[in-house]
Amino acid sequence: MSAVIFVPVICYFIIKYYSERDLVMPRHYVADTVVEHTDNGREAFDTLWHVIPDFTLTNQLGKQVSLHDVPKQIVVVDFFFTHCPSFCPTLTRNMHLLQGMFRTNDTIVQFISFSVDPERDSVPVLKDYADRYGVQHNNWWMLTGNKDTIYTLAERDFKVAAEDSGHQNFVHTDRMVLLDKDRYIRGYYNGQDTVDMTRLANDIVLLTLERKKGEKRDLFRK
């Protein structure tokens, strides 16, 4: 598993070397609507992609945080709970590996883990869990708060709701979600799969190189 750490580093230098060539960026997911219009006399269509809305929840340090606090960062999201007996520990370990890959520049990516059992996952419980897994608190939030807010985000916005067997209305998913700086969903990944974790790490690197329309290609200027 730890070998995956080196993949994004290699990709970074390959992409840097070939940065003047066309790059295949991670595609967009979850369209809100398609708008029809006329372009040079021809029928054309524009897709309006779903934007993840802002929220305010409480992290493992007892601080209220929101997406507005990280306006220029790529975001990686998962959903877990601290007493999970199945795949949540694997998700946390793999998220920890991802955090370690980008530790030299911790302003590139914000990691967010939403507790799907916020009533039991209080701030002290989340802090203890985070410390046990070696979480660096500056760019990884483990969030608790209003359950309806978290479940609406999971089900309506991130589209990751999955009912756990034996539990009604309980979000239990092993998928991680990648957001770009504009809060569009750019990928879904199996958080238990090494190949998918490599793909996620590489997609993060690619998104750091993505330009908005009209921007100059000045990728690695300090």
Keywords:
two-stranded antiparallel sheet; 23% strand; 5 helices; 222 residues; alpha/beta; disordered C terminus; globular; five-stranded mixed beta sheet
Write up this protein.
This protein is of the alpha/beta class and 222 residues long. It is built from five helices and nine strands; from the N terminus they run αβββββαβαβαββα. The chain has a five-stranded mixed sheet with strand order 7-6-5-8-9. The radius of gyration is 18 Å and the shape is globular. The relative contact order is 0.20. Mean pLDDT is 83; it is low at 216-222.
The coarse overall form would be globular
Identify low-pLDDT runs: 216-222
Beta-strand content bin: 15-25%
Order of helices and strands: HEEEEEHEHEHEEH
The counted number of beta strands is: 9
Mean of pLDDT: 83
What does the radius of gyration come to? Answer: 18 Å
The largest sheet has its strands arranged as 7-6-5-8-9
Largest sheet: 5 strands, mixed
Task: Give me the secondary-structure category.
Answer: alpha/beta
Tell me the helix content.
25-40%
Summarize the structure.
By secondary structure, the protein is an alpha/beta fold. It is 28% helix and 23% strand.
Sequence-ordered SSE layout with sheet pairings:
Blueprint: H1 6-17, E1 31-39, E2 42-49, E3 57-58, E4 64-65, E5 74-80, H2 88-101, E6 109-115, H3 123-132, E7 140-143, H4 147-157, E8 175-179, E9 185-190, H5 194-208
Parallel strand pairs: 5-6, 6-7
Antiparallel strand pairs: 1-2, 3-4, 5-8, 8-9
